[in-house]
Amino acid sequence: MTSRNVTHRMIEAFRAAMLHNGISAGADSLGITQPAMSRLIADLQKSTGILLFAKSGRTIKPTEEAHALMAKVQQSFLGLEQIIDFSDQLRKQKLGQLSISTIPSIGHSIIPAVVRQLREKFPDVLISLRVASYIDVARHVKTRQADIGLTADTLSLGDLETVAEFSSECVCIGTEKWLDPKAGHIHVSEFAGKPFIASTGTFQTRLDAWLGANGVQVDAMVEASLFQSISDLCLEGLGIAVVDPMTAAKHQRRGGVALPLRPAIGYTVYATAMSDARLSAPAKELIRLVAAASSGKHITPTHESMT
């Protein structure tokens, strides 16, 4: 026999045995008997001319050749899984589903309210939400696990396309301990002497350049990776910070102080999809709602809200 006699069922049995560390366990995972599993493995070894499992004491262990073959098999099954994911995505779109993948600064601020509004307008549409890193958002869109990806950076990977972008301005947050709630804004020069809570992400690089361009050094004794965590720290009275307008609006609703910055520093939200995707009505409504919610217009001057 030659390798041309190898069947998908043989490969499936081999993979199950490798993944479950044994022929018996592999058989259970496939719902077949151990003798049937053993026959499939034996047929695969005969077809390939390779010894895949060898006795070691009272157990049977995979050979080096089996591990090498498994690496190739996994690559093949990964491609198959992507095809299955894509097929599942097509089925869900037909049934009515909107899959969203977003970075935390967006997912933890405006998205809950956006999802509520989507559900009100499209009650029969299943909405799937993932909050992930920038890289994972790109992966979710590229593998069609998400219809729309929302980030604060453009995703320039292969067939990904920016379908909308919304520009606004960053905001300074804190509490009345460090910020005057009656002020119309805060100038960057006023950062001097105030404890500063920094970001550990790429946003901090932009912020450092903005501070440097304005000749200001900050006293950063605390840092955090998520804007939501930075807001939490500010609410504890630990200092001031610069965050996106969506986090700032939520911070203000939680009792904190949020002030516009002078000079301004921009913040842009990007909506991304596959270039060959046709946006559904729920996806288009999502983009409209995110545009409205990310504008920063929901930040209310404290002295106005008190009148």
User: Sheet with the most strands?
Assistant: 5 strands, mixed
Q: Uncertain runs with pLDDT below 50, 5 residues or more?
A: 302-307
- Which architecture name of the largest domain does CATH use? 3-Layer(aba) Sandwich
Supply the CATH superfamily name of the largest domain.
Periplasmic binding protein-like II
Radius of gyration: 27 Å
Overall number of strands? 13
Helix proportion range: 40-55%
First-to-last CA distance:
88 Å
CATH topology value of the largest domain: D-Maltodextrin-Binding Protein, domain 2
Instruction: Provide the CATH top-level class of the largest domain.
Output: Alpha Beta
Q: How do the SSEs run, as a string of H and E? A: HHHEEHEHHEHEEEEEHEHEHEEHH
Seen as an oligomer or otherwise, the chain set is single chain
Mean pLDDT: 87
Instruction: Name the strands of the widest sheet in spatial order.
Output: 4-3-5-13-6
Number of helices: 12
The percentage of residues in β strands lies in 15-25%
Sum up the overall morphology in one term.
Answer: elongated
Structural class: alpha/beta
* Count of folded domains: 3
InterPro entries: LysR_HTH_N, LysR_subst-bd, WH-like_DNA-bd_sf, WH_DNA-bd_sf
GO biological process, one term: positive regulation of gene expression
Protein name: LysR family transcriptional regulator
Organism: Alicycliphilus denitrificans
